[in-house]
Amino acid sequence: MTHVDMAHPYFGAFVLFVLTFVAFSATLFLQRFVSRKLARLDTEKLKLSIYECGPQPTKQPNKIGTQFYLIALLFILFDVEIIFMFPWAIDFKLLGWFGFAEMMLFILLLAIGFIYAWKKGALEWHSIK
Amino acid sequence: MDAIIIETIIKAVVVLAIISALAGFGTYLERKVLAFMQRRLGPTHVGPFGLLQLAADGIKLFTKEDLIPQNANRLLFSLAPVITAATAFIALSAVPLLPEFELFGYTVKPIVADINIGVLFVIGVMGAGLYGPLLAGMSQANKWGLLGAARTTVQFLSYEVVTGLSLLAPLMIVGSLSLIDINNHQTGGLSDWILWQQPVAFVLFVIAGFAETNRTPFDLLEHEAEIVSGYVTDYSGLRWGLFFVGEYANMITIGFLASLIFLGGFNDLWFIPGWLAIILKVSFLFFFMLWTRAAWPHVRPDQLMWLCWKILMPLAIINIVITGLVMMV
Fold this sequence. Notes:
By secondary structure, chain A is mainly alpha-helical.
């Protein structure tokens, strides 16, 4: 098998996209229809309430730690780096020493930022008190 | 042109049918393998060897009450499982599943979309699959769901960095992002596998694959002792089932990626024909994931982050630098 360049290579992905969304949504729709006929329907208030250990919850403080946002910021930094490195990796032999030196410089700059984040404690998991 | 359109649609339907059946069969396999490793019998009652357990579970999930808890965002709550399941299958569209074969005198290429940047496409679509757990956790007015979604996001994002970096070194050797080209680079049998040139990258990729499919050392999103069930806390019935199908389809995708990039893909191996070789490789990787679940405990969330950012990521970058140096000299 060899790779062939086609006019519309993404057509298959599009077909699968439409197919999966339609198929799974249709299954869920059908399930709703069937379960209305078969399942025991019971709209008791406590059952419909959000999950808790038994008592009916009144109000929940839905907050998450700032650590999650910090990691997301780090991800943006390093994932952009990876996307930048993909074309370089593909044309690695073509670019030669010049490309290699350029990328090493880029990695060095990022490593400085990474060490800074590490020293600042962005990678530690702080306990919330 | 029409022939190509019809062929693509048939291939898409076949891939969807077979892989979703395999994903369902995977749940049976997981229960059976785990049971034998723990000296139990696993499912035995429904059908021979409990094989029909899958059908029984399906009927049970299908006839359950369709429940949306109060205060939940109804649209996002119903959309999230569909996103998870769908992206798992869309990612498979760029993966060549088997070698070419003849069917009724017609040569079939078992790849739905022959994309020239296959690896990047698969990683990207699997990354987009993150929206499933994220929307699921945020749509329910439930702190366990929200915490589970936050944990999932952080885990996916961190390990996606490791996945990308670990794949860069083999890509430097091959010089193409198409999975077919990567496979054809390793035609010379066992000694030609990229695994021998890039053992570190393989280990990193497998670890990151475990984290991206929520397998056991890293399945903190559904850690019962801490956050009940994570992002699936308020889900029940077939919606919950769709999350499961998505997870198992993702395991199969990771298995295919690892076998195609590192383990020689679907090339003939000694006397084993190519199609059997890749099925055996993917099956072994799938079994390896179940095996790890039986043998290893969880890690803590802080250990997870520490492992990813302080060990795996620097290791991956050093691997790339060394690969580059060796290739240049």
